[in-house]
């Protein structure tokens, strides 16, 4: 997906783009697999899916589960590039958080917050005060700080200021600010406050949850950006094996495929194409589960997110569950797909993810994958090779978008500017739209 978005953006920027993929489908690691038979093959499961799974073609199973924040960076990219015209989205029905072995809905309105059994009565009043503070907080207006220095005061101190207890801190940091670990507590609070603002603003847009998900699965996203690239003259080649990245004097000059060399000035790729220029920074375990029932205690939601904060299960990192269903045209009628993921911490990853799987029982079929996480050791300054990072365990696209902006900056020497893209598009499309 990162590469598809960048090829779209670079094409709009007037660059000449050739996009090659060794796979026969768009999106690489972030593809949606269809039909279901292909998923069985991909995970080397014997036999074919049972009759009870319905038609194989009715399935579109994401390999990497993520939702879009309604007010987040990816939605902005989709709107500015008008890739939205190729996609339809649905709002995810609820966001839940795990506490003491049970799941609770993350309150999405003031009324829900007051009725929620996540907190006691007085805690609710303090939490409400905190939310009002966050909503009014403006990093450019010191009058909204109330004695907090956004660049110095730690988040731990801000929680203390509002006298919030451990349970509230847990769900605020992990289900609202979406941190994977507790490291953020001792960092300056500005970033956390902005993350909670993003959550609240995203929530305000549609009401049920702050998350959106495209019909037919996430595989639609890279295809949308591939189309954008094509409109602006980009060329896309699937099934193209990459034999060699051609380097002269330490700089990339081309890519060799099937005996031919396509010459280039800059190259963007994922870590799997340049194993000598990346380093392993961890692992993620993901378990795709097919269910014939909605998840218990979610009010029969046909889609939801569940976050298990690390504190609740004595871990360093959170466990996530994303659930979608036939309502999103990704599964056969009456079927649900729940994908659990977390950062690996021990030698027995399957045991680490058990708290999530327990919430999903009974599970009809499981597909387990453990992926290495890579980060570039070569930032491309000399070589002009720009390498994306592997998808982390988070269940939203904010970290992916940070990576896209980082690559853009390294390539172009300037920050990625949405407004600039908007203007460029008006230059090209302006005339037609007036008629």
Please sum up the structure shown.
The chain has a domain at 107-205: Guanine Nucleotide Dissociation Inhibitor, domain 1 (Orthogonal Bundle), CATH 1.10.405.10.
Radius of gyration, in Å, reads: 22 Å
Structural class: alpha+beta
Average pLDDT number: 91
Strand order of the largest sheet: 7-6-15-16-17-14-18
Oligomer: single chain
Q: What share of residues are in beta strands?
A: 15-25%
The third-level CATH topology of one domain is: Guanine Nucleotide Dissociation Inhibitor, domain 1
For the termini, the CA-CA separation is 34 Å
Shape: globular
Quick tags:
single chain; 435 residues; alpha+beta; Guanine Nucleotide Dissociation Inhibitor, domain 1; seven-stranded mixed β-sheet; three-stranded antiparallel β-sheet; 32% helix; disordered C terminus; acetylation; phosphoprotein; GTPase activation
Can you walk me through this structure?
- Helix content is 32%, strand content 22%.
- It is α+β, with helices and mostly antiparallel strands.
- It has a domain of 99 residues: Guanine Nucleotide Dissociation Inhibitor, domain 1, CATH 1.10.405.10.
- The protein has a seven-stranded mixed beta sheet, sandwiched between helices. A three-stranded antiparallel beta sheet has the order 4-8-5.
- Helix 1 packs parallel to helix 9 and helix 1 packs across helix 12.
């Amino acid at each position: 997906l990162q590469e598809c978005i960048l090829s779209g953006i670079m094409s709009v920027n007037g660059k000449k783009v050739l996009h090659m993929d060794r796979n026969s489908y768009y999106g690489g690691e972030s593809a949606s697999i269809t039909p279901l038979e292909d998923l069985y093959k991909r995970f080397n499961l014997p036999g074919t899916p049972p009759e009870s799974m319905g038609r194989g073609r009715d399935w579109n199973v994401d390999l990497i589960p993520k939702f879009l924040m309604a007010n987040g960076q990816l939605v902005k990219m989709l709107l500015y590039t008008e890739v939205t015209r190729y996609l339809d989205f649905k709002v995810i029905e609820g966001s839940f958080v795990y506490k003491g072995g049970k799941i609770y809905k993350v309150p999405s309105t003031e009324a829900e917050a007051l009725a929620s059994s996540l907190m006691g009565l007085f805690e609710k009043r303090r939490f409400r005060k905190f939310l009002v503070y966050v909503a009014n907080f403006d990093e450019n207006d010191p009058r909204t700080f109330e004695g907090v220095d956004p660049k110095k005061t730690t988040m731990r101190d801000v929680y203390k200021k509002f006298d919030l207890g451990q349970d509230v801190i847990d769900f605020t940091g992990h289900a609202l600010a979406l941190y994977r670990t507790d490291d953020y507590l001792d960092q300056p609070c500005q970033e956390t406050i902005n993350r909670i603002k993003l959550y609240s603003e995203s929530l305000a847009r549609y009401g049920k949850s702050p998350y959106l998900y495209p019909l037919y699965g996430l595989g639609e996203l890279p295809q949308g950006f591939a189309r954008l690239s094509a409109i602006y003259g980009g060329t896309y080649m699937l099934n193209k094996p990459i034999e060699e990245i051609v380097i002269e004097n330490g700089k990339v000059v081309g890519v060799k495929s099937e005996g031919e060399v396509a010459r280039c000035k800059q190259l963007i790729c994922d870590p799997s194409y340049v194993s000598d220029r990346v380093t392993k920074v961890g692992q993620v375990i993901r378990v795709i589960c097919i269910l014939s029932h909605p998840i218990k205690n979610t009010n029969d939601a046909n889609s939801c997110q569940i976050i298990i904060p690390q504190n609740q299960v004595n871990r360093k990192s959170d466990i996530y569950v994303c659930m979608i269903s036939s309502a999103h045209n990704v599964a056969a009628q009456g079927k649900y797909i729940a994908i659990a993921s977390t950062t690996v911490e021990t030698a027995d990853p399957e045991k680490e993810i058990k708290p999530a799987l327990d919430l999903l029982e009974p599970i009809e079929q499981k597909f387990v994958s453990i992926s290495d996480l890579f980060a570039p050791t070569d930032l491309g300054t000399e070589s002009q090779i720009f390498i994306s990072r592997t998808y982390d365990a988070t269940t939203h696209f904010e970290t992916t978008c940070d990576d896209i902006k980082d690559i853009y900056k390294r390539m172009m020497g300037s920050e990625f500017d949405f407004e600039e893209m908007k203007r460029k598009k008006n230059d090209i499309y302006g005339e037609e739209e007036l008629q």
